[in-house]
Amino acid sequence: MYEIVVKKSLGEGVNLYGIYAPDIASKVLPGQFVILRVSDKGERVPITVANADKKEKTITIMVQTLGKTTHMLSELNKGDSLSDVVGPLGVPTEIEKFGTVVCIGGGFGIAAVYPIAKALRDLGNNVISIIGARSKNLLLMENEMRSASSEILIATNDGSYGTKGIVTDVLRRLIYEDNLPINRVVAIGPVIMMKAVSDLTRERHIKTMVSLNPIMIDGTGMCGACRVLVDNKIKFACVDGPDFDGHLVDFDNLMSRLKFYKEEEKASYECHMKEHHNKV
Amino acid sequence: MDKNESKPFDAKERLKIKRHEMSSQPSEERRRNFKEVPYGYSPEEAVEEAKRCIRCKKPYCIEGCPVNINIPAFIKLIEDGDFLGAAKKIKETNSLPAICGRVCPQEDQCEKVCIIGKRKDTPSVAIGNLERFAADYEAEHGNVHIEIKTEKDKKIAVVGGGPAGLTVAGDLRKMGYSVSIFEALHQIGGVLMYGIPEFRLPKDILMRELNVLKDMGVKVFTNAVIGKTITVDELLEERGYDAVFIGTGAGTPKFLNIPGEELNGIYSSNEFLTRVNLMRAYDKSEYDTPIKIGKMLVVFGAGNTAMDSVRTGLRLGYDDARVFYRRSRKEMTARLEEVHHAEEEGIKFEFLINPVRFIGNESQNVTAVECLRMELGDPDESGRRKPVPIKGSEFTISIDAAVIAIGTNANPIVPNSTPGMDLNKWGHIIVDENTEKTTKKGVFAGGDISTGAATVILAMGAGKKAVVAINEYLETGIW
Ligand SMILES: Cc1cc2nc3c(=O)[nH]c(=O)nc-3n(C[C@H](O)[C@H](O)[C@H](O)COP(=O)(O)OP(=O)(O)OC[C@H]3O[C@@H](n4cnc5c(N)ncnc54)[C@H](O)[C@@H]3O)c2cc1C
Ligand SMILES: Cc1cc2nc3c(=O)[nH]c(=O)nc-3n(C[C@H](O)[C@H](O)[C@H](O)COP(=O)(O)OP(=O)(O)OC[C@H]3O[C@@H](n4cnc5c(N)ncnc54)[C@H](O)[C@@H]3O)c2cc1C
Ligand code: SF4
Ligand code: SF4
Ligand code: FES
Fold it and tell me: Distance of CA B467 to CAs B153, B170, B244, B363, B461, Å?
């Protein structure tokens, strides 16, 4: 059913997949995600849609290989199929004429921020992008991001490309040294990054939207597993989000919720690797 | 079968026969496994139980059943040993008897009004057990293939694969319509699949019913969230469906809205049960979705959902699984049989307790809950005495997990994406009670999405009404 029509490695542990999914391709908007199952005994995992091709009826996702499910996905090739892909889920990102928007992507978050940057720019915003990764060879979608932005700034932890440091170092410079007037920030990446960005922009009251990635099951508001605290109220990230105002999000709670099943995930991963690869 | 046994004998003799309870897995064993609890009747037990029915001239039991099964007629067929005939009789009005026999709250429906049960000392005829028996017998020995006689050229889209949607799909297909079910999850069945556990409704039985539908030619599209993947308007205008039935269920879980509810280890009953039922988290060696197991589990609530959660917790391996309810035993809404089974399994019930906050550790995992004791005050709007807190009665109890089973709100995905379809103040779809028509032309709705959380058989009953009205609408074109 959901055939993999393209598979590309984007560097260490990150793959791009083009998946045949006509209904989703014709509907998806920036900021939305899908939930997929690799096998019929597998978990349901949420993944942001990075791009869609209505003509080819495909969607593009970029996935970081982390645990069992993403590992099983990485073992599939062009021509293989996924058990299930459902979407597009979540509320699309607010795309309006804001003025100057800084789009920040960290790690696989770059894949998620790309369609948003593109849509914002198509609407005439001045899009400044900051993308970051641990090292140059882990940096995703640089060319795409370049074409979706008026200006692109890069940070790598090891200094192998762009500024040495993290995306917030670059953002701090823009805000506090260059005194750049910024109308809005969109930040997607590791929770810790989104938290740091929100802390930076809070003082200057720059509206900052983040995309939250809690553990999900159904993705339709049925289970409440994805609940996050926003302005001290419970929100379901799959239907109320995944985008929220970063200044109101309880990031510490999100981080702890993401860690809850660590032991079980580790055991399941190790068991999978043992069975299928005789390693670990 | 001994033919002599089927000869008529008088009511007095019938009244002497004791009600047959189904034998079941010993509580000591079953509290740690997911196998079905009652074994079901043997043919002999079924015939004996069937003899208890006195075939009333005015059978109240039929009125007590929301889909008006001809109860005395099917019971007589069982008494006569014609078990397949009994199943057929039931299926004239109820297409999912193996399921209803197991999960209907009979004591509030057919068995509540059974004349035998009205007398002192004689419990009502075990209608549900007999229904289950006939359906299971048919599945094992009968031919459940259904021929579609005349194909019609009209198409109906059914949104949601729960009991309401399954009924509409099955009955319209039987009439010859082309029917497609669109289901958000990766499997159809609705609450029967993700909510009600294996030990109460084995998934094999559900699969059997679902396969009958597929065999009849009902098309099933899973992974289709209507309102997101495709809208209702698109089904009608672009995809060529002549009518749409919405049966999307009760939807989205309520929380207590008390401090600490965001902590790890606190689940909605939907999440807890979905992990275990739909995603099979109890079978760690085969399935990937995780679930945590600890020492103490507390479930808040008193309905079927609460019973299913607490008994699931016990079976997963919690040492102690308890129910805390803010009212008293009298107000519990769960099926009686489930409460009895839970108690036999060693589950403790504590009444007149309300949680006030959850307490967690540095990893934000829940470690305790603080509660207040309540007493019953004056009756509230629902006519039930309202629980009021007793001052200074706070106490704290250590827990590893909590399940919140206090009900659901309507899921807004379909309503919000369907202009022209009116909702009531709770967000439920407004329908005409006789036809299940919504305020939008061509669109019908029924089951929990229009009534709020109710029962399997009421959802099916709504489906039945919709089928009549959909057929009429498609034949006449008159809305
Ligand atoms: C809205 C959303 C969009 C996302 N987009 C992307 C994306 O574009 N690319 C990408 O690589 N990843 C994305 N993720 C994260 C991705 O879902 C997880 O990496 C994936 O579930 C890990 O599964 P696993 O079995 O391989 O790893 P596991 O070993 O099971 O888990 C590794 C970590 O992933 C998280 N996780 C586990 N299960 C789930 C689950 N069911 N739902 C969410 N998180 C889970 C937990 O933090 C866990 O500790 C997104 C998550 C969300 C909620
Ligand atoms: C744990 C639990 C135990 C219960 N026990 C009993 C019992 O013992 N006896 C009894 O009579 N009743 C019981 N009930 C109640 C009963 O299950 C429900 O009243 C009944 O299932 C309602 O049927 P429905 O068809 O309206 O909806 P549901 O069964 O809720 O099915 C709705 C379906 O629609 C799908 N859906 C939702 N949104 C969309 C969308 N946008 N697009 C496509 N599909 C969608 C859902 O995924 C689901 O499959 C129980 C309920 C629960 C939760
Ligand atoms: S469907 Fe339910 S209410 Fe009707 S006869 Fe069967 S058990 Fe009783
Ligand atoms: S009311 Fe009871 S005794 Fe009378 S017909 Fe119905 S099941 Fe039989
Ligand atoms: S994932 Fe179940 S409600 Fe959001």
Answer: 16, 10, 11, 52, 10
